[in-house]
Specification:
153 residues; mainly alpha; flat; 82% helix
């Protein structure tokens, strides 16, 4: 009978290691580009908020509440977008170190961050799809109430 505590190993060929290194480079590029995009969105949001508050007309109290709500939503979305980028960046950093040093522990750590990235993106996708379904149901229910408005009867 086989030894049940036998450790199975996966050996990677040189071509596979080159593929991982190429993947690491592209994931680093995408992560850094994402961090720059987050910074630009926040900067543009702050500048737009300053201009909107400086040139606002009408009830200033209502405008302030709307501006704060928009900023809160903007910062929430950027915070949500930050975490998958962080996981992608950490995958890239650890994978690069693992390929350079041929360190299996660093490679395992890199793939843990890649798993976290995909789990986060998968859950986020499920949440967004659920919001879409809810929006379709709500809009369909709203149209049911509006169907008699155009008949004139």
């Amino acid at each position: 009978m086989e030894n049940l505590t036998e450790i199975k190993k996966i050996e990677l060929e040189e071509a596979t290691i080159r593929d991982i290194d190429t993947t690491r480079k592209w994931s680093m590029f995408l992560a850094i580009l994402g961090f720059i995009a987050i910074g630009l969105v926040i900067l543009i949001g702050i500048i737009a908020g300053i201009f909107l508050s400086a040139f606002s007309m009408g009830d200033s109290q209502l405008g302030t509440a709307e501006t704060i709500l928009v900023f809160a939503i903007l910062f929430l979305l950027m915070a949500i977008y930050f975490f998958p980028l962080l996981y992608l960046y950490r995958f890239s950093k650890h994978a690069g170190d693992a390929v350079r040093n041929m360190d299996k522990d660093l490679m395992a750590k890199a793939f843990r961050y890649l798993r976290k990235y995909y789990v986060f993106i998968g859950i986020l996708t499920i949440v967004v799809l659920a919001f879409y379904v809810i929006a379709l149901i709500v809009s369909g229910a709203s149209l049911a109430f509006l169907k008699d408005l155009g008949t004139g009867v």
